[in-house]
Amino acid sequence: DDVCTCPEGMTLDKEGASCLCPDGLDYTDDKLGCTCPWGMTPTGDGRNCTCPEGYVPSPDGQSCICP
């Protein structure tokens, strides 16, 4: 299985499938219940995570994962 390589300053989650921002740097939208380290982008059905190069949004659009 491939393991994410995280951008500098980020940490890998326990599953090795996504990267987490250091405490206090996550983008959190309480209304959507979304925590997204890279910010959000408007979509037709709400807002989805904006993912850094090399990552793709999760199926629910609420986090970034390895492709």
TrEMBL record:
InterPro entries: Growth_fac_rcpt_cys_sf. This is Uncharacterized protein. It comes from Branchiostoma floridae (Florida lancelet).
